[in-house]
Amino acid sequence: MTLRLGDIVQALGGELLGDPGQPIEGLAPLESASGTQLSFLSNPRYQPQLAASKAACVIVGPALREAASARGAVIVADDPYLYFARLTRLWKARQGPAQAGPLIHPSAVIDPGAQVHPSARIGALCVVERGARIGAGTVLKSRVTVSEGCIIGERCVLHPGVVIGADGFGFAPHQGAWEKIEQLGAVRIGDDVEIGANTCIDRGALEDTVIEDGVKLDNLIQVGHNVRIGRHTAIAGCVAIAGSARIGAHCTIGGKTGIVGHLTIADHVHISAMSLVSRSIAKPGLYTGVFPLDDNASWEKNAATLRQLHSLRDRIKALEKNHA
Length: 324
What we know:
Blueprint: E1 3-4, H1 5-12, E2 15-17, E3 23-24, E4 26-27, E5 37-40, H2 48-52, E6 57-60, H3 65-69, E7 73-76, H4 80-95, E8 109-110, E9 115-116, E10 121-122, E11 127-128, E12 133-134, E13 139-140, E14 145-146, E15 151-152, E16 157-158, E17 163-166, E18 171-174, E19 177-180, E20 187-189, E21 194-195, E22 200-202, E23 209-211, E24 216-217, E25 222-223, E26 228-229, E27 234-235, E28 240-241, E29 246-247, E30 252-253, E31 258-259, E32 264-265, E33 269-271, E34 276-277, E35 285-287, H5 296-307, H6 309-323
Parallel strand pairs: 4-5, 5-6, 6-7, 8-11, 9-12, 10-13, 11-14, 12-15, 13-16, 14-17, 15-20, 16-21, 17-22, 20-23, 21-24, 22-25, 23-26, 24-27, 25-28, 26-29, 27-30, 28-31, 29-32, 30-33, 31-34, 33-35
Antiparallel strand pairs: 1-3, 2-7, 18-19
């Protein structure tokens, strides 16, 4: 498949400096793009790669207009990364449907009591249980499970292995053993949500677990029972969110972060990868809870010092009191 540069600009906007008839046969990173491929540059850190790139055309911001046009064709856009994102969607749409065949794969198992919109696509080996509802334009890829009573909105994408509505982790201790707490809620997922492969979202114990509109979840995320994730929040892979946590709108959470249950995170909070969130966060901003990497000997010394901080604090308070 090819697209001409003029077709791309006509569809997506931007300013083209170059031949509108130039054919583009693919999209690629700056360092590996060939003379028939299109790339983009949004991070100034990669500007040294620009002059050496063999790309047929590069998408850049206004600040790099002159530097990029000196090497060849260029599309100038206010936000090159956003432009590239829209270009990938245009490219995929021009390639035709990602999947051929029936909207519901013959191997899928759908309970007669489930409601699946006629435009939804259900992939191979999916299971949609009693009382579940799947909205218009939603795609369940292979091996997705939607448990009883769970609701998925419109235009969602659930990647292979996603499990929606497994029981939350609820047990009551009794005489040295554990008694199960039945999970009587469900999961409600809004519109335009994308959920990565093998991510699990547990049903609520009494009320529902809720994923609001526009949320983007990466692979291998665990969302505990009764969690609520606000609209347009994006969460990277291997994050674990314990039960009843409340995460605001427009947040970003880095990979392998752990979030303790029953806390609240405000809107517009950004959490660095590998952090442990053990208390509520009331103000927007960037938060980090990562112990920096170091050689092992130095790390052990610093860790030993950290363990003594509480006693050192008490000693300092005592000295200050005596000095006063």
